[in-house]
Amino acid sequence: MCDTKENAGASRLDFLKSGLLAGAAAVTGVNLLSSFTPIETSSEQKVKVLTPDGHIVEVEEAKMVPVREIKQELGLTELQQRGREGIAGKHWVMVIDLAKCRNARKCMESCQNAHHLKPEQHHINVLQMQDGEHTAPYYMPKPCMHCDNTPCTKVCPVDATFKRQDGIVLIDNERCIGCRFCVAACPYSARVFNWTETLDEKNSYNAPYNIELNVPQKKGTISKCLFSADRLRENKLPYCVSACPNGTYWFGDMNEDAVTNGTTGETVRFSELIEKNDAYTLLPELGTKPNVYYLPAKDRQFPFDPEDKKKLNESHKH
Amino acid sequence: MNRYNTLKHIALALTLTISNIGFSQEWTVPEDAKSVVSSVPFSEMTQQQGKDLFNANCKSCHGAIGANAPLPLNPSPGDPASERFAAQVDGALFFKITNGRAGMPSFKNTLSDADRWALISYIRTFHPNYKGAVAENPSAVNTFKGGNIQMKVSFDDEKHMATVNLSGTENGSVVPASSVRVGAFVQRYFGQMKLGEPIKTNASGVATFEFPTDLQGDSIGQLKIIFKLIDEDKYGLVVAEQTVNWGEKFVYQNPLDQNALWGDRTAVPTWLLLSYFGVVLSVFAVIGWVVLQLLKLKNLK
To answer: What pLDDT does A68 receive?
Structure first.
């Protein structure tokens, strides 16, 4: 298969060479086959390509062969296709230790930077929680739960949001029609909608659409936490996890039964961490099977900010 | 049923052991832990800190110190001023406060090391015969003084055990490297997962590791195990890696293979197809039936 392709390339090259010669002949005044000139210019057509090691090289367009076959009938780009396929054999899971969170908001910052979000848009949001009037308040970071039984992908009429084999729920903003059914379906309010012109549109940021980063953002489409699917591909922890200064986040592969702390780099057994600390998931009664686990805020390391406490008390009065 | 009975017996036996023997017996402290001493000398300041900590964390069970009024529990918490406490070395007290047992909670996560030493410093003020012991340089105590450590690892595939053999050069000759901490790790996607606590090599430079039997391996049950010296700053990076096949075989099931509502159109559940087409077909059937009846009515004329 490869051989025939190479042969085909070689023969095309020979053909182009003859075209070049003919062109040279035309320039030198021998008025031969001047109709070949357009082909000659197309042979000069070069495309700038970024190699994996970061160099920009020029390649003749005619010689470029896609690395693998793209499902043409779906009209996907390579980035979209691999984004839909996901990483085989993985099942990503996040553990959030509420005892460690002191509302530093570094996770939100790095997330918004990575995904080109506006300050009011959150893929991950640190909430101030108090379950009852007399219970202790705590800070709770809330990303997308990447449920195993997703309510959001069920309602998408155009297959724009989907779950891939490694458990990540992504969206394809080139398919999204902005109906916002998924926003209504999500019980965790994990999705944001680009109501107005996005930062990327304002700054005319024109990179090819990266589905695993959901950048560039597009007005009239949905955005949401992606578990930093682009980083996981490179063996790196998600943006929020590695930005946390307090060791709040653990992230890893459930199939390996291991999670790694983004701050300390320590890796522990997932099942043990969950069991020893009596972890829970949000709204388990809905049967969504979330992949984000919370460790209760027991023996917390930081006191709750008195200012925030005051605000919470105010909200209790209403 | 049989298994249930066996379990019941085991549970009963355990309960009896714990209530009758375990608690009345001496609380044993590992020799390693006993030799631990505070890195900071006890002073008036640590004693004051310890007093506050004692009143906040310990008084509820041990009672006011010196009053001999601990809560009547079994085993008795005891008064820290008593002879029972005075007879124990610092390391033993530290171990007990750190780890706890039964009614005595573990203060590993709630009090820092310094806090726990401050507590001991306070308790010691009630032991008139106590003579303080403070390490000059705690990290240097009882560790291998030589360098150029070589690591050899042998594996016992049946028992899931590994023996690490360390030798080093001390005073120009190759000797077993004793009292060097070795950690065992398993390679995972985002880093190396620690397996248990680091183990110190014994006098012949040997540390034996026992691994859990339920470690998740890859599709053929392989695991990459890594041994490292913990005191990297002192001995440099000494690592041994080995792939073993003790892990549990991982059977991958692609969640997309199942027919579920959340999947795309290629994975529609059968019940949904059946019920949808059932409804559509029955609606058309009813319309057809009505048309048929109308035709019959027309033909009646």
So the answer is: 67
ipTM score for this prediction? 0.72
Would you say A214 and A83 are in contact if contact means Cβ atoms under 8 Å apart? Answer: no
Q: How far is A124 from chain B (nearest CA, A)?
A: 21
- Residue B160, Cβ neighbours under 10 Å: how many? 16
CB atoms within 10 A of CB B21: 9
Read off the amino acid at residue B237.
L
Domain boundary among B109, B124, B139: B124
Nearest CB to B193; choose among A236, A237, A267:
A267
Cβ–Cβ gap B252/A89 under 8 Å = yes
pLDDT at A8 over 50: no
Residue B192 lies in a domain: yes
Q: Which of A159, A167, A252 sits opposite B188 (nearest CB)?
A: A252
Residue % of chain B over a pLDDT of 70: 86
Looking at the structure of chain B, the number of domains it has is 2
Domain, as residue range, for B203: 147-244
**Per-residue confidence band for B87, with pLDDT thresholds at 50, 70 and 90:** confident
C-alpha separations of B139 from A270, B36, B39 in Å: 31, 10, 9
User: Hey, where are the domains in chain A?
Assistant: 2-63, 80-295
> Chain A contact for B288, CB < 8 A?
no
Model confidence over A88-138: pLDDT tens digits? 899 999 999 999 898 999 999 999 999 999 999 999 999 999 888 888 899
3.40.50.10190, 1.20.1510.10, 3.30.70.20, 3.20.20.80: CATH of A80-295: 3.30.70.20
Identify whether the C-beta of residue A64 lies closer than 8 Å to the C-beta of residue A47: yes
Q: Does residue B211 contact residue B186 with C-beta atoms inside 8 Å?
A: no
The answer to whether B75 and B23 are in contact (CB under 8 A) is yes
Whether B48 and B120 map to the same domain: the answer is yes
Note whether B190 contacts A167, CB cutoff 8 Å.
Answer: no
Please name the residues between 104 and 123 in chain B that touch chain A, using a CB distance below 8 Å. Answer: 109-110
B266 Cα distance to chain centroid: 44
**Residues B133-178 pLDDT 10s:** 655 444 444 677 777 888 999 888 888 889 999 888 888 888 888 8
- B186 belongs to a structural domain: yes
Task: Kindly report whether the peptide bond that precedes residue A216 is cis, defined as omega within 30 degrees of 0.
Answer: yes
CB-closest option in A163, A253, A268 to B189: A253
Q: Can you tell me the mean pLDDT for A6-11?
A: 46
Given A150, A162, A255, which is nearest B250 (Cβ)? A255
Contact A116, A216 (CB under 8 A): yes
What CATH number is attached to the domain comprising B223? 2.60.40.10
More confident residue, B226 or B71: B226
Q: How many CB atoms lie within 10 A of CB B255?
A: 18
**Is residue B206 included in any domain, yes or no?**
yes
| Cβ-defined contact of B189 to A299 (cutoff 8 Å) | no
Q: Is pLDDT of B23 > 70? A: no
Residue B276, chain A, CB below 8 Å: the answer is no
Query: Is B183 a member of any domain?
Result: yes
Q: How many CB pairs under 8 A join A and B?
A: 71
Contact A265/B191, CB-based, under 8 Å? yes
Q: What is the CATH number of the domain that holds B60?
A: 1.10.760.10
